[in-house]
Amino acid sequence: MSGHEAIAHFQEADSFDFRSSVATLRHAVSVHRWVVVATVVFTTALVLLYVRIWPPTFQAEVTIAADSDKDVQRAAFYQGWNVFRKDSLVDESLLLSSPTVLREVIRELHLGYDDVYHPFLNYATHLWGQSWLGRNYRALKRWIFGGEGGVLSPEELERAEVLNDFRAGVSVTRVPDSSMGVVVVKGSNQRVAEIANAIVSVYLRQRGERYASEAEQAYKSLREEADRTLRELDQVDREARKFRAENGLLLLFEKDRAQISQWVVLRAAVTDLEAQIADSENALRIVERQLATESEQIGTTRVFKDNALQDRVTKLEMALAGAKQTFQPDAPEVRELEDEIRIAMSGIAGGRDVVLRNTQKVSDSYEALRAKKLTIESTLAGARASWRIKSEEAARMRALLDQIPAKMQVNREFERRQSVLEAKYTSISEKLTIAAVSMATARSAPAAMRVVERAGVPSQPVWPMTRLMLLAAVIFGLLLGALGALLLDLIFARATRLRLDGAADYRVFAVVDRDGGFLDTAYPARGAGTGNA
Asked: pTM surpassing 0.85?
């Protein structure tokens, strides 16, 4: 044995002896090589079983393009026309893989469970449900816990499974920095290209039908609202016409304006009549005063002279009253008559001699005054009658004029209702026109999303990759087998040279060299490959 060290050597805890680890692993693999072989065979068999049982996955792609959001000119030109409506590509992708579209594709292509893509867990669940063990397990569970079936028929369950797995195999990916997308469809056979093209075609058809249905519904709703608004407008027009006809407003208060003018004229006439009545009453008082001082018979020469002058004054006063009705108070004709009256009155007061032709006759001045009085009384009676009638008419018209503000308020309310309904009807009519055009062209208008490249029939499945999976199974089996052999070697610890070197738990009594001849004699079947004991 070699010499002892002064200080015993201990390997550091954080160090890793690569050579000894590799030697240990090589020794474990050589001892438990059948474990490694069995593990490789097992993983390879699992892969072969998966390839044999699980259906292959074919893939088809359809390239689609949507209208760019950066095309501002086109968007501005077609603004307001829903035949050119568009959704974002994200929304289009969600709608494209919706159950409504997929159900229609399943119905049109008569797709079954074997035609669509199946995720691993879904297909494993399906296999479990179809197996003898799964069927009996469900039957036992129903027998123990009571009936759970009967809600859906087997056909409905199959359709639900087809739709669920089919939806998992449809996806839309957007091409970066573009308005294009790729519809990726997976299936269990080469019909996947037909399925992919059918999905896009059905979606575009349903998209057009949806927009057409929306346009028809919008047109129907707008048509009903337009008809209702038109009926309301006609009703308001009839009420307004009736109100204006009853109140004489057919020309929008032209009659009221005429009545106001007529009332002004009547008021002026009443004022003139009041002035005429006052003037006639004043003249009547003068005549009555003159009659009171006048005698019916002329008795003396003085009387004759006074009567003559008085008669002249009376005639001049009558002329003056007529002139005042014709001319202004400061007119020359009025002033001339007033001067003559003043001269005549001064003659009566002065007692100048007057030459008389006939000194013996009935007093003419008295008769003239009587006639004057009768004339004035007749004129006054007529003026009073006219004043009474015109005053009553003016009062009646005043009552009508007092109603004008209320009628104007009611008429403004009618006009406001008419304006609101007309504006509403105009707006609805514009939208109705757009809806009518949309309804007529929704099915034929170009869609905002179009197919750039349709799917082609795939030549081979994208999954499983049999060769790559077998290679991966062998490598994984080798690694797993080596790990298992190492664990077995560690669990069932064998005394080896590697463990004995430097091991404190083992007491070495002797080291026996290998004798090949003895081993061949003792173990002829094993040969010379036996290790040290």
From this structure: no
